[in-house]
Amino acid sequence: MAGTESVQERLDHFVDAITDSMKVKVASIYLKRPGGDLELSATRGLKKSAVHKTLMKRGEGLVGHVSQTARPLNLADAPAHPLFSYRPETGEEKFSSFLGVPVLRGGRTLGVLVVQSEQARNFNEDEVEDLLTVAMVLAEIIVDDERVGGKKAALKGITLNPTRPETFQGKAFADGLVSGVAHLHVPPVPPSDLLAENIATEEIRLEEAVTKLRASVDAMVRGEAATLSRASKEIYETYRMFAYDRKWVKRLREAVHSGLTSEAAVERVRNEHRARLMKSRDPYLRARLHDLEDLANRLLRILSGESVGPGNREISDDAVIFARDLGPAELLDYDRSKIIGIVLEEGSMSSHTAIICRAIGVPLIGRAEGVLDHVETGDPILLDGETGEVHIRPVESRLAGFQLRMSIRGEMFKAYEAIKQKPATTKDGRRISLLLNAGLVVDLPQIEQSGADGIGLFRTEFQFMISEYMPRLNEQTDLYRQALNACGDRPVTFRTLDLGGDKILPYMDPVPEENPAIGWRAIRIGLDRPGLLRYQLRALIAAAADRHLRVMFPMVTTVDEFITARALFDKEVQRASNLGQPLPNKIEVGVMMETPSLAWSVRAICDHADFVSVGANDLMQFFFAADRDNVRVSDRFDPLHPASLSILRFIAEGCHDSDVPVSICGEIAGRPVEAITLVALGFDALSMPVTGIGPVKSALLALDSAKLKDVITPLITIDSRVESVREHVRQFCMQEGIPI
Ligand code: PEP
Ligand code: MG
User: What is the distance between the alpha carbons of residues 606 and 659, in angstroms, rounded to a whole number?
Assistant: First the structure.
């Protein structure tokens, strides 16, 4: 491979060598072009005339799939696979079996290497490993071409060193604006030696590595990051659980005992886990997968002689880490004081890394698909944790605008800080309660930091989602007590578990559903399987001994459902009382108003509920029939449409007439324009993400709500032709000098 021929010639020899040694009919190399298309760049076995002609679009066909997932694909009957894309010019239809592996270098996918044969069979594990190793060599050849400037005509157009400014849209999982320098996180390379020379020596190697791994994880649990908050401590404790997991270590030992090297054993066990967990579409299960990958990577690093532990990786002072995914342990191997942001191709809101990032104040953007193909270590980066955008190699003008926003953000934070202790009273004298949406221990310091009036929505399911097992009664009680303690005299409204649908727990049997959002979820599960709900209510009652307890039920659709749920609660109070346990000194049981059917029963529900909290995220999704998690439709309809405002006003008025306190939670309560409109409609309590408190309060302090009501009331009629009152509210704010 180190010949002096042109890169094209080397690639041609490469495919020849593979077909001969692997005894396959076809070997082909697809290389990635700018933009992500894959070009057939060399082949033996397919028609040569297709070389540099056949292009697979990003994600297209089996080749595109291998490139996107960066994982091998091994099929006995490729043409039968749903992703198979038929290309007549290649003549590949007669080949049944297919093995494709990604060509990876430095976390980037450079292309895909494929072997095919006529006989329908799966390639065995050794063949997969061999091809992965070969792909590593191939990566070097390709990069070599890059180093010499890609001057060999045949590979022209396949630029591997991008220089253009580019912007990627991802999802903001932790808020913040930063400007820094890219650092590509390089996962350890797959093992090259598969078979151990001496099994006994290898067994000792593995034992030593496992001991080191455990020591490093123990150090992590004791370390600074783990003490940041209880939640982060719990996360690292979970790590320790994995590291000491007997089954995991047993599988590793068995693999080594069968003759593999320790590295190959780690890979094999990792692949088994991957295969199992990848089948799940559930993000929480996948997050567990990443924890295990994280640990496997750490073990590989130890085996290769690298030292692991806090701050062991070299990075620049203002590093934005780019990775496919990053476990919290891998994160800690970097010096935390140097990391200013993280960008991932995968990740989820509830992944452990996202939780840690929110706790340590490092902005994180996830789901930035394909970003790794376009960034190099050292590239200047602007990370916008407000919009979810990542700007790579930004132009000067963008940089200037971004820095301005960063400084305005700084100023605004100062302004919010100044009004933190002020009550949110409108100019016409209405005292509005500004409450937080929370769910984990990491959120609790935000009460003090933001000056919120309490917690309006405590999403109890979060604790269940980040746990490896069903949280025990005392763990639930403990969390609820901490939330109450953090709030002191300020109220906390606990929402009972809103599980089900797509929020499946790792330890629950998934129930596949066509429409999870309107499926078996929340109170519906609670009523069908009351054990779990009663257990939780028991924990809440115990946590609120001698204190004020506010509990509400999610996704209630009919008044009867609420009555049944409340009866379960009463039973638990009775039980605690029979056992002589101390009871809460005040109890309020409320309902979340999230379904249109309940909205139309507002007077009836007010006869039974002590308070109402409008879950606007769900209410709007059902009202507009637009999935809140589907980006194509989630922003299609404006919640400030007269139709939705009239249902919100109907609820507020219904509650007021019945003297039942009503609040609204969900994202819209935290946006200034929406928030002041809600106040004008009659809402006196808004519960929101922490980032909303400052901006909403500063708008409210300048608002005359009666005046705004006069502006919008004529627009909210049954025959209104206005699409949204947003512009009218904006105009009003301009005239009145309300900061929005
Ligand atoms: C809502 O639906 O508005 C709400 C606050 O609950 P969640 O977002 O947890 O469904
Ligand atoms: Mg909801």
Answer: 8
